[in-house]
Amino acid sequence: MRDITLCHPRLQRIASAWIKACATEGITVAIGETLRTVAEQDALYAQGRTKPGNIVTNAKGSSYSSQHQWGIAFDFYLKMDVDGDGSVSDDAYNDSTGMFKKAAELAKGLGLAWGGDWHSIVDKPHLYLPDWGSGTNILKQRYGTFEAFKKTWSKMDAETPAAKTDNAGIIALKEIKSGAHGLKVTASSLIIRTAPAGADSGKRYSKDQQVQPIRKCFVSGAPWIQTADGWVSGKYLTGWVCQDGRWWYLTNDYTYLHDTVCQIDGQAYAFDSGGWMITADRIAEDGHIQ
Questions:
Q1: Residue 192: what are its φ and ψ, rounded to 5°?
Q2: Single pTM value for the model
Q3: Which of 63, 79, 69, 73 is nearest to 23 (CA)?
Q4: Can you tell me the distance from the alpha carbon of 252 to that of 235, in angstroms, rounded to the nearest whole number?
Q5: What's the confidence (pLDDT) of residue 109?
Q6: Rounded to whole angstroms, how far apart are CA atoms 10 and 62?
Q7: How far is CA 271 from the centre of its chain?
Q8: How far apart are CA 133 and CA 213, in angstroms?
Q9: How many CB atoms lie within 10 A of CB 173?
Q10: Rounded Cα–Cα distance for residues 213 and 152 (Å)
């Protein structure tokens, strides 16, 4: 399907703003695939496996493993003459000039995440709402079906201020993740907000509860971390954080371990001056850290 109005209301708004932002930068884009049925997703999954063609997805439709089946993602293509031959139709997926990444960076600035950042399978035309991570497990566990999830859209949309779609005041927005146990809450009752420094959602995390982070950012110098339930202050979480493929250890009041060797869960870990965990590939034969 190619109808963005079938998708999550917030995705619709961001998509509209993103198309305009791309046009301002001289990039003409259009929305392709949006919501997919089980049959449509299973047909894509079969490609390169039981049907001719290359493998294009690892997500089975029958298990609701595609973000397209939950209305939180869309694919896009280019509507411009990239190669200068006078034709637009042959350049829909021509990324010879890096246009997909340029368009994706604009989308990420508006709060979306990009399939081009995935490791398997890299999906450059894919943009999605990252509130529930990079897959669909959280959605399946929480809502069970797309129909049940869709019933929450009006409430979720009302809780998200429209002004926040342009990420006003938000800096250093980054996708992050943690280990299997997630981050531990250190506050006795941690407020979950609808946006970074936003309104109180009425929900709370309790002390020692473990949560999985999705993104982090700063607003007026204060750290905020997004989970599947909303945004919380980064000052009241501790644990391992993976950012840009490297790991660091978050301690209370949003500080981090650095220039030290520490025992964590019975294992010794070394951290450099920037706080990054030192891995074996960074240690030279003479013992120097690269």
A1: -100, 120
A2: 0.57
A3: 79
A4: 6
A5: 85
A6: 26
A7: 26
A8: 8
A9: 17
A10: 21
Look up residue 101 and give its DSSP letter.
H
Q: Which amino acid is at 233?
A: S
**What is the Cβ-side half-sphere exposure of residue 64, based on CA atoms within 13 angstroms?**
16
Strand partners, 260: 271
Helix runs in 9-152, H state only: 9-24, 38-46, 99-109, 137-143, 146-150
Among residues 196, 73, 204, 82, the alpha carbon closest in space to that of 135 is found at 73
Paired residues of 76 in beta bridges: 31
Please give the angle made by the CA atoms of 252, 254 and 255, to the nearest 5 degrees.
80
Quote the mean pLDDT of the chain.
Answer: 88
Cis peptide upstream of residue 121 (ω within 30 degrees of 0): yes
Residue 133 CA to its chain's centroid (Å): 6
- Angstrom distance (rounded) from CA 115 to CA 184: 28
Distance between CA atoms of 84 and 120, rounded to whole angstroms?
A: 32
Helix (H, G, I), strand (E, B) or coil at 1: coil
By residue count, the chain amounts to 290
> Which carries the bigger pLDDT value, residue 85 or residue 279?
85
Average pLDDT over residues 30-37: 95
* C-alpha pair distances (Å), 228 with each of 66, 133, 143, 189, 253: 17, 7, 12, 17, 21
Residue 288, both tokens: 């120097």
Which residue is associated with the tokens 């890096």? 98
User: What pLDDT, in 10s, does the model give residues 123-178?
Assistant: 999 999 988 888 888 888 888 899 999 998 876 655 444 334 334 567 778 899 99
Using one digit for the tens of pLDDT, what is the confidence trace for 35-81? 999 999 999 999 999 999 998 888 888 889 899 999 999 999 999 99
